[in-house]
Amino acid sequence: MQWTDLTQALFGTQHSVTQQGDFLSGEGRCNGQAWTVVGSTNHAPIGVELALAQARVVLDTIRQKPGQPILLLIDTQGQQLRHRDEVLGINRAMAHLGCCIDFARRQGHVVLGLVYDQALSGGFITSGLIADACHALPEAEIRVMRIPAMSRVTKISEDRLLELSKDNPVFAPGVNNYVRMGGVQSLWTGDLQACLSAAFQSALNSNRQEDPRPMLGKERGGRTKAHDIAHAVAGA
């Protein structure tokens, strides 16, 4: 889905979201609730400038609009892979974005992520996976690594990884596997305004100090050990 169609579905005409290159920012109003909207489009690689631009919107919201919820619109191919960004400190810029999102949550802002197209690697980790909850459209594509790249890194054959991916979502790309693992809380279909409002109320009513993803992964059969191991370590 194009971001223009998405913002129309979420906010109707009650939004000021604009595009500057690959950068999206603005505000929207859904069922009477004002939202800060920030994100990316065009399968954007997240470089230094884009990471800092998104972080600035988050910080401005904390400073100027206390408590206003933030919606992250996610469409990224991951971090920008070029020498210039490495020299400028892409790792610090992306860490700064993640810290700003976490700081917003600690200051009482509900932060929701919505993967509406593509979410890969570091560009997803420092946005949607740090939000109070991350949701996705059914047609979205989410993965950390393609099977061939995973094979090169793990030294496990592609055939073996494909076989493992049939039963273990950790080895398989795809939005449904991230739902099973708990990384994506739900898929939004139908009335997207109703989905956004319901996700907002769910975040408000949840224990925002506890990460729900390990329990979701256990309940959905995608990560059966993470929750119990984390609690065992915390209690050790």
UniProtKB/TrEMBL annotation:
<dbReference type="Pfam" id="PF06833">
    <property type="entry name" value="MdcE"/>
</dbReference>
<feature type="compositionally biased region" description="Basic and acidic residues">
    <location>
        <begin position="208"/>
        <end position="224"/>
    </location>
</feature>
<dbReference type="InterPro" id="IPR029045">
    <property type="entry name" value="ClpP/crotonase-like_dom_sf"/>
</dbReference>
<dbReference type="InterPro" id="IPR009648">
    <property type="entry name" value="Malonate_gamma"/>
</dbReference>
<dbReference type="GO" id="GO:0016829">
    <property type="term" value="F:lyase activity"/>
</dbReference>
<feature type="region of interest" description="Disordered">
    <location>
        <begin position="205"/>
        <end position="224"/>
    </location>
</feature>
<keyword id="KW-0456">Lyase</keyword>
<protein>
    <submittedName>
        <fullName>Biotin-independent malonate decarboxylase subunit gamma</fullName>
        <ecNumber>4.1.1.88</ecNumber>
    </submittedName>
</protein>
